[in-house]
Amino acid sequence: MAQSWQDIHKEALRRIHSREWAPDTLIPNEADLAEEFGCSRATVNRALRALAEAGWLERRRKAGTRVARAPQRRAQLAIPLLREEIEARGQRFAHRILSRSRSKMPSPLRAALGLSDDAPVERVQTLYLADGHPFALEDRWVHLSAAPGFETAELEKTSPNEWLVQHAPFSHGTLDYSAAPAGDFEAEQLGCAPGTALLCMQRSTFGPGDHAATLVTTHFAPNHRVRLEI
Amino acid sequence: MAQSWQDIHKEALRRIHSREWAPDTLIPNEADLAEEFGCSRATVNRALRALAEAGWLERRRKAGTRVARAPQRRAQLAIPLLREEIEARGQRFAHRILSRSRSKMPSPLRAALGLSDDAPVERVQTLYLADGHPFALEDRWVHLSAAPGFETAELEKTSPNEWLVQHAPFSHGTLDYSAAPAGDFEAEQLGCAPGTALLCMQRSTFGPGDHAATLVTTHFAPNHRVRLEI
DNA sequence: GACTCAATTATGTCTATACATAAAGTTATT
DNA sequence: AATAACTTTATGTATAGACATAATTGAGTC
After folding, report:
1. Both B58 and B133 in a single domain?
2. Domain final residue pick, B67, B93, B117
3. What does the H/E/C string look like for A176-200?
4. Whether residue B109 sits in one domain with residue B59
5. Does A9 fall in a domain?
6. Of A174, A198, A230, the CB nearest to B229
7. pLDDT over threshold 60, residue A17
8. Does the residue A226 lie in any domain?
9. CATH number, residue B162
10. Which residues of A fall within a CB distance of 8 Å from B223?
11. Cβ of A74 and B70 within 8 Å?
12. Span B39-64, average pLDDT
């Protein structure tokens, strides 16, 4: 026999695609499959677990394993580090700090992050350039107690985007994409007409202890696309 | 002792967050960690493998395991089934077929999917409604040999979106998001002014054998957002 | 029928052991 | 020096066996 878990993974996926194992029906249990494939139960387990993580199967103790009704495929997006995104296109990366201040955060934003009134917050606006052309405009609020050292960081050398990834790894957060018309400021900085449809990304990240780290709004230059792999 | 792989997973993540294990440095090997935690190497392996899959660690045979320099966090998007997205908001789902024809596919699109000239293709335009209000406008091209039975499917009952998920599960594809101004047709159907910034999703899916299944362009009503979890 | 409690069962996980494999390091050969 | 061949090493994977755990099933009771 000599089966590897990847062989079993492949064969199981084939049966799902060919509807030999139909959606919403139970498949044989691990012990039976192990016997059929001539391998140990652990090997079958490894293969089926991978399929469950990918959304093809649903598994529950005692209840058994069934093919997902509508396979909840998950698209994956590698979180964009702007420098890498630009350099991957073979373009030259650069950034320009437009403003940096310890200003007061508007209440609605503060509430969204669950920050108290007196939480020390710094705001940084940055323009990112690809081959000298505007690529994205970033408006970032950083909660200073979650990112010690940020206040004195030399952001002209290391962009805020990179500084934070390297110094304040976060554990979870959300990413929202929407479309928005360019305001006067965005139009001026990105070099487009006011009202142009721009892809807008809003991202909030939290550190280990559920305390907010940053809130970022990024407007991309016109015609930008985000690609997710399925 | 009595460690489970989840305990080790948690402890390793703590060391990464606390920089006890610094970015871009090697961590002890599995055998040593197994001894430290008082468990078997397989258990350590399970924990470290999970961390590697999540992007925190990079592992290579013989070279060992190192903490990722810039943890490539991956955001996950549960692929949107429009009905579920609308009903999850507590709104009533409905759809209206606007047009359906076996028209010829423009060459640029056909080339993008790698389809031959005479490949049988059907085009369906659908408007999706939430509580009677326009929610999204879908323009879909379906490669008929990849979706047998689609031609005769009663799309008034089951929306194209759902029909295809249930009858032609795909194995991989891409998802592109961008911002686009509403054209006259989109404006009319979605009930907004021409030129309004709309979030636009373009999705191509492929079946098991690399042959294209569908190409979908969806314009969402104004102010729509897509949320990804990190 | 409605409820409680125990028996059953499929998945989840841990262990010890073994061998496979990739890649780095070392030595021998040209 | 460059190259080839061997050794070493850390991860990758397979196995049999055991026990843990969640959830269904069914028996017994009210």
Report:
1. no
2. B67
3. EEEEEECCHHHHHHHCCCCCCEEEE
4. no
5. yes
6. A174
7. yes
8. no
9. 3.40.1410.10
10. 178
11. no
12. 95
Residue A97 has pLDDT above 80, yes or no: yes
**What's the full length of chain A, in residues?**
230
Q: Is B19 helix (H, G, I), strand (E, B) or coil?
A: coil
Mean pLDDT along residues B204-210? 77
- Residues with Cβ within 8 Å of residue A108, at least 6 apart in sequence: none
For B205, residues 6+ apart whose C-beta sits below 8 A from its C-beta are A230, B170, B172, B173, B212, B213, B214
Number of independent structural domains in chain B:
2
Angstrom distances, CA of residue A124 to CA of A177, B89, B122? 20, 35, 50
Note whether B42 and B154 are same-domain residues: no
| CB B197 within 7 Å, strand D | no
Asked if residue A46 keeps its beta carbon closer than 7 A to nucleic acid strand D, the reply is: yes
Q: Does any domain span residue A230? A: no
pLDDT single digits (tens) B155-167:
999 999 888 887 8
B60 and B139 in one domain? no
Do B116 and B213 belong together in one domain? yes
pLDDT at A185 over 70: yes
Nearest CA in chain B to A207: B17
State the residue range of the domain holding B9: 5-67
Q: What angle do CA A143, A147, A153 make, to 5 degrees?
A: 110
Report the pLDDT averaged over residues A72-89.
Answer: 83
Query: Considering the domain boundaries, does residue A76 fall inside one?
Result: no
Indicate the SS3 state at residue B33: helix
CA of B72 to C1' of D6 (A): 37
Judged against a pLDDT cut of 70, whether residue A1 lies above it is answered with no
> Do both A123 and A160 map to the same domain?
yes
By C-alpha distance, the chain A residue nearest B161 is A70
Q: Do B77 and A198 touch (CB under 8 A)?
A: no
Complex prediction ipTM: 0.81
A62 CA to D30 C1' in angstroms comes to 29
